[in-house]
Specification:
This protein is α/β, with parallel strands linked by helices. It has five helices and four strands. The two termini are 12 Å apart.
């Protein structure tokens, strides 16, 4: 399972189900902590846990992250992709101002991170 934003939450849940985890996040320290948490819920010695630090805000970086994960899995295509990286600023669209969409938690760290991950997958 390839999980962007994989240093938090979902990776631990699917690891408990026995899945191999290929987590991608920006922050290396969070990834190190996530790997420790994954080890704590390991279901078998065959499970594979790998972490990769990438920024996913361009197609090039997103492709590099996915390539690193698949290379780390014998160049096999991964079974599933969970696009969980990014941020959001919840509000009603009609209440938004143009600057709300332009700010990092708008289109850049929300929509585009998901879009580039889906595009390269």
């Amino acid at each position: 399972i390839y999980i962007t934003g994989g240093s938090q939450g979902l990776a631990k849940f699917v690891a408990r189900k026995g899945a191999h985890i290929f987590a991608v996040a920006k922050t290396q320290n969070k990834l190190k902590d996530a790997l420790k948490e994954l080890e704590a819920v390991r279901q078998s010695t065959d499970q594979v846990f790998k972490a990769f630090s990438f920024s996913l805000d361009t197609a090039k970086e997103s492709a590099a992250a996915l390539r690193a994960a698949s290379d780390g899995h014998g160049r096999h295509v991964l079974d599933a992709v969970f696009a969980c990286a990014g941020t959001a600023k919840p509000m009603h669209f009609l209440d938004m101002q143009p600057e709300d969409l332009a700010q990092p938690e708008g289109m850049v760290n929300g929509y585009w991170i998901y879009a580039w991950t889906a595009f390269v997958s």
